[in-house]
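Side project, low priority. Logging it here so it doesn't get lost.
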Amino acid sequence: MKGTTVLKGFIILLAFVFIVHQGVSAFYKPIKTETAVYYKAADGLNITGLIIRNEALVTSSGGGVLHFTVGDGNRVAKDGVIANIYDSESASITLSRIDTVNAKIADIEEMLSYNDLEAADLDMINAKTEKCLNNLIVSAACGDYNNFSDYSEALLSSLNRRQAAMGETADFSAQLNALKSELSSLSSSLPAAKGTVKAAQSGYFVSKVDGYEKALNCDNLDGITPEYLNGIKAEETGSDVIGKIVSDYEWYIAAQMTINESLNYKEGDSLTVYTSVKSYPKLPVTVKKINISETSSSAVVLFACNEMNSELASMRSGPMTVVKKEYDGLKVSKNALRVVDSKRGVYVLTGMQVKFVEVNVLFSNDSYMICEKQSADDSVLRLYDEVIVKGKNLYDGKIIS
């Protein structure tokens, strides 16, 4: 009887040990791995870039109502008409309606030109229709009712184009004739403009001014020092200012930085600046000048650029990254780096076996490193290898159970 009790106790103990062992095996991992993936990294300095360019204020002191013929951010030639001046608001309203009617006429005439189903790019038309619908939904959801009408018109136009491309075009002749009749009536009722506003130089017309047009120009680049930038203030502009012309010639990005950071650059260096501008996420620049502060503790580096568009023309400052060099290769946690027999490498897990492979580190920061992507043999790090980032008593050939 006593022997049976002891046997039962031993069996219970054995079962308990087994359960504990299984639990530990399930939750305890002697090593931790991460997958080596392809990655691009940039060795750069984060800055707040301040835009310096030649800008000419556009004024109108003739009175009356302005009707702009150039859209905000659009390019204008020297002596080109920016706006016409009318005596009353009704003339500007009539002109806006004329623009709308002309756009509708052009839209219908283009739709009617879709007479070849095979030549029509239905995938592109469907994608545009989906985009128009998404814009309308987002506009309604966000309460952006200012653009709701435009998005509705764009969706209707896109749907009509789709019908035309599929040979299901309705009869638009009555609508087209009505629009042409309305256009004729509007044109005959439009009074003559009593004046115009013209561009004094070529460039991009921007309707908003910020008061830094005179303080931040290209006439005295040597004077753009840390002290100068810290002391400038926006100037008030007169009520007659209706916008500005932004020059499309060479302009500059000013970046304040420490004196040690400025030592990484020299005049003439060709670099790349990453921006938050959707139309220009990367800008090719050249180091134009490095102006050191009076205390020699900081500096302003001026990067010259020749690229320009409407989005850049409207920008004064923003977060940027000045990139000296870009790297691409296999991204691995910095914790994985080991030195074995004076060779730098990482341990990878192949099946249940640990293997040491050498790596050539191209770039590293506090958290990860970029390793050169070499040939795909077993002696080097390969794409999608399971790299050991945490583990003890590792050695080449070790079996992990």
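Brief comment: The helical segments are 2-27, 89-112, 122-141, 148-165, 173-189, 226-231, 259-262, 310-313.
Revisit when time allows.
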